[in-house]
Amino acid sequence: MLAYIFRRLLYAVPILVGVNLITFALFFVVNTPDDMARMQLGVKRVTPEAIQKWKAERGYDKPLLFNSAVSGRSTVTETIFFEKSARMFVGDFGRAEDGRDIAREIGNRMLPSLAIALPTFILGLFVTVSFALTLAFFRATAFDFWGVVLCVAAMSVSGLFYIIGGQYLISKVWRLVPISGFGDGLDAWRFLVLPVLIGIVSGIGSSTRWYRTIFLEEVSKDYVRTARAKGLPETLVFFRHILRNALIPILTGVVVVIPLLFMGSLLTESFFGIPGLGSYTIDAINAQDFAVVRSMVFIGSLLYIVGLILTDISYTLVDPRIRFE
Amino acid sequence: MGFQVVVLWSDVLVWLLVAAGIGFGVLIARSPPLLAAWRRVGANRVGMAAATVLLVFIGIGLLDSLHYRVQLDGKPGEPVRYGIEVRSLLDALATPLRTRNEKTYSAPFATRLYAKESVDVPGQGSVRDYPRLKFGGAHLGANENDVAADAGFTALRAGVLALLLWLVLAGGVAARVGDGAAVDASGWRKIWRGETALAWDAVLATFGLILLAALPLFWLAGQYHVFGTDKVGQDVLYQILKSVRTGLIIGLVTTLVMLPMAVLLGIVAGYFRGWIDDLIQYVYTVLNSIPGVLLIAASVLMMQVVIDTHPQWFSTAAERADLRLLALCFILGITSWTGLCRLLRGETLKLRELEYIQAAQAFGVSNWRIIVRHILPNLMHIVIISLVMDFSGLVLAEAVLSYVGIGVDPSMTSFGTMINNARLELGREPVVWWSLAAAFTAMFILVLAANLFADAVRDAFDPRAA
């Protein structure tokens, strides 16, 4: 098991290197640092001196890949690629445009992101799985039909409208919870209720439909027929056999998302003014803060790869037939 | 008045898509299994109703994809000059909507502005009141309280006309599906009982509803701002119409971009295996492991820098916005081909072990010929299903991305930019709800139709998943 995990981790390295090369190419080869400087300084007031100053302040005045001005190991290390891209592997993300340390900022903002994402994820999973199970239980009835119709309709609503509508109705008209903001400690729950609720509701449509098909696939299998044939009541068949077997594909599909919860949701966080990583990213996009966006891309892919490894491990845990090779 | 045809890059791709669609239709007609699958789609009532709605949206989008610049009035002998503004055929048809701008917000069917202003009334000096709209309900003159009666009557007349039009159309269809060449009751009966091969009853019912909604809407739009006006006084209905093209282009051109890449790489990886497979798998795992929104955000940021630092590339603002739209399609395409590619690779791995492929190999048929003749046709159902399934997701993604500020150019009308502009209006007191509601409804109808159609296609092409 440990050897397997170790091998998977090794396998992740070339992928992370690939991600790193792509972001490097995107941020420094498509546009030169000069272009970025011009963009940041504004096209009108740009002088060669200002560009040089901007680049020197942020360390963009070095060559991209190979520094011929210095000798020895420095030819490789004193380059933009090494300082801005390769050092991300050791958690050094550099500084944002406002001079703050990006790594520390990320550490501070992880918790609020989790505070929203974790309850949304767990409650959402519970709600959608129960709903899907109910639909599958009443399959081929009017209830099932209208449930699916409702799901398709809910899928067709843009996520923006769930947020805008929910915020307007619950916070502004009914004044049940604050419109936006974030508090410390236990007081934070008042700020969390609405984003979590909206997060759950906006996911119901597509997830329920997906889980319903998984349940229905399970319903048509032989062991279910056997269970019925031996005289088990339908409820028992459902909860003891079908639910347990369908949870395997559901859980393994869901594990990959867990690490990504750290990233938070871009939309929810920026709408509700939650100081998490999602709103950090959106602010960086709007401010065209390339260093922050670059770091978030790297962290996002790192978490995704962790999720993939977790999925593989969970596969082997829930299904003994799958062995490590 | 002369005009100069302007061909934007996105127009080229849109019409290429139309041509490809027709070519594809011809191919389908020749391939019995595909034809049978599409027949099943045609027999699906919900699917055909959704297809009718989609066709109307596509029609609007196509009208909006024929661009031109109007010739400016000049003295005789001067060289001909053209206006800087790029218009489309849709703009020409919707001229009253485009030009009749108010000063600022006005509610649907309003005759007065939404905010009080100082108005000079003769004899009383300056009075704070809601100013009369310049265009909305202007034909009423002094009887501005008669809006309901006037609009109702106009809608009724338009509705009757719509009904007549629909009857003519339905009659035409009935004559086609009927037994004899003459118009008799057999065709009507067949449609009514749903006995036609194509679900004409659903198509006609949907089209009737569309006519009943659209004709009164357009008739009234000439006299009122049916959906109100936005902050700068632009008609909301006009913005909705313009948004349709943006959404369709994002949904359709993106698939056009990703399709060749996904199909080629997926088949090649699955068919040749070995290091080619490893390489392609590596590429799509890397792309896949970057969260989509972030990759799009990073790419769009970079593209923005390119566009902003090269203003000399574009002769009109429309061209710039257009290029940005296309770049967005490319970026979305590059980030979304991986899923389809993986599916096709898996299926190809399975197919290449089948006996008829091995027989072909034993006969010495070249690899590429096997791919084109045997593998590709057997993957078509996966391609078609995933294309129609992706469409609605892309339309929704456009709105979110534009809202975040990494979508289409802010000057280009789209559902995302409309929502973005309308969002802060909800904080006003009293609330300005109509632009948001209109954008929401139009987008909902489009995406719902796309989802329902996608379901019908999936059911028809993938009998297992029914």
Sequence-ordered SSE layout with sheet pairings:
The complex is a heterodimer of chains A (325) and B (466).
Chain A: H1 2-29, H2 33-41, H3 48-58, H4 74-77, H5 80-85, H6 102-137, H7 142-155, H8 159-173, H9 189-219, H10 222-229, H11 234-255, H12 266-272, H13 277-287, H14 290-318
Chain B: E1 3-6, H1 9-30, H2 32-43, H3 45-63, E2 67-71, E3 82-88, H4 89-93, H5 95-99, E4 117-121, E5 125-129, H6 147-177, H7 185-193, H8 200-221, H9 236-272, H10 274-289, H11 292-309, H12 317-351, H13 355-362, H14 367-404, H15 415-423, H16 434-461
Antiparallel strand pairs in B: 1-2, 2-3, 4-5
Task: Tell me what you see in this structure.
- The complex is a heterodimer of chains A (325) and B (466).
- With 325 residues, chain A is mostly helical.
- Helices cover 71% and strands 0% of the residues of chain A.
- Chain A contains 14 helices and no strands.
- The model of chain A has no long low-confidence stretch (mean pLDDT 83).
- With 466 residues, chain B is mainly alpha-helical.
- Helix content of chain B is 67%, strand content 6%.
- In chain B, the strands form 2 sheets. Chain B has a 3-stranded antiparallel β-sheet with strand order 1-2-3.
- In chain B, helix 9 runs parallel beside helix 12.
- The longest helix of chain B is centred in the C-terminal third of the chain and has 38 residues.
- The mean pLDDT of chain B is 85.
Question: Could you name the key traits of this structure?
Answer:
heterodimer, A: 325 residues, mainly alpha, 14 helices, 71% helix, globular, B: 466 residues, two-stranded antiparallel ribbon, 5 strands, 6% strand
A few lines on this structure:
Chain A is mainly α and 325 residues long. In chain A, 71% of the residues lie in helices and 0% in strands.
Q: Unreliable segments of chain B (pLDDT under 50, ≥5 consecutive)?
A: none
Amount of beta strand of chain B: 5-15%
Number of beta strands of chain A = 0
Low-confidence stretches of chain A: none
- Rg of chain B, rounded, reads 26 Å
- The arrangement of helices and strands of chain B along the chain is EHHHEEHHEEHHHHHHHHHHH
